[in-house]
Amino acid sequence: MATTAADIQQLQAQIAQFHPTTQAIRQQLKKVIVGQDYMIDRLLLGLYCNGHVLLEGVPGLAKTLTIKSLARTLRLSFSRIQFTPDLLPADVIGTMIYNQQRGEFMIRKGPIFAHFVLADEINRAPAKVQSALLEAMQEKQVTISDTSFRLEEPFLVLATQNPLEQEGTYPLPEAQQDRFMLKVKVSYPSRTEELQIMRENISGIENIELQPVADAQHILHGRRLCRQVYMDEKIEQYILDLVIASRQPAEAGLPHLAPLIGYGASPRASISMAQAARAVAMLAQRAYVIPEDVKQIAPDVLRHRIGLTYEAAAEDLTTDDVIKQLLEKVKAP
């Protein structure tokens, strides 16, 4: 069924009506988070797109604080898992325990059973724990013994990892990285922002109370609106051009990248980019997607889905450099 101008106008009105909810969440977060608007927006994108988010940055950039604060602004359950090399799958999903009084085994659910799960320093856990997360992230269910449990919606894994200290860490498998809709690089604050951070922490930031301003129904309504945002076929073709260029750079007019890219983005990248571009438009109070929305979100969607070769490492080339060249070369509608 074709989308008409009247449909877009109607959706535009619904998005405008919903926008104060997003603004209320932002205002609450800004009580404790100075700067980092980019990170906050990306977490909101993940929230409205039903997509998991991986935050990468050095310690002390308020990654954990931002995620915890976001959970406090919503009337949703929250759990934090500190990933360590000795963590076991049962510590994440739960296990069977024997109840002596009843004389039977009972299921004790793990911290994965929450709306928001903060996986802190996710790259510090071994492969068995990573695989335990995979089912929860993709299937939105957890299997303990021979029983499967559906996870309550909305369910979101927000993970952090430290890019510097690699000793004692386990690189995330490509299959798991692909489950994250966005990989967001968190940067240092500006000098003015850092001065404000210093002053607020000295004066007692822990005394600031955050008010819950939205609940599960608000978030699910936001997701429904996000899925309805209009995307023209030319935008869809542009997304496909970008993703396919990451797999076949020579055919896209970038032959020098062919020996530097080990593997390109998967079809999940196309899906994630289309969803995220819709959410970018919705946050901008638009009922339709424009090419700039795709360009804005492309680095976060592709960053963890493009694998580089040793030759790229020798040339000191990063995935962000590759994405920049793709965006410059692939023609936008």
Instruction: Report how far the terminal alpha carbons are from each other.
Output: 23 Å
Overall number of strands: 11
Provide the CATH topology of the largest domain. Rossmann fold
Number of domains: 2
* Helical run tally: 13
Low-confidence stretches: none
Examine the secondary-structure arrangement and name the CATH architecture of the largest domain: 3-Layer(aba) Sandwich
Class by SSE composition: alpha/beta
Describe this structure in words.
- The structure is a single chain.
- The model has no long low-confidence stretch (mean pLDDT 87).
- The chain is globular and about 70 Å long.
- With 333 residues, the chain is of the alpha/beta class.
- The chain has two domains: 24-202 and 214-221, 3-Layer(aba) Sandwich (Rossmann fold), CATH 3.40.50.300; 230-329, Helicase, Ruva Protein, domain 3.
- It has a five-stranded parallel sheet with strand order 2-5-8-1-9. A two-stranded antiparallel ribbon has the order 3-4. It has a two-stranded antiparallel sheet with strand order 6-7.
- It has helices spanning 5-29, 37-49, 63-72, 89-93, 127-139, 174-177, 191-203, 216-228, 233-247, 267-283, 291-302, 310-314, 319-329, and strands at residues 52-56, 78-82, 94-99, 104-109, 116-120, 141-144, 147-150, 156-161, 180-185, 261-263, 307-308.
- Helix 8 packs across helix 10 and helix 11 (291-302) runs antiparallel to helix 13 (319-329).
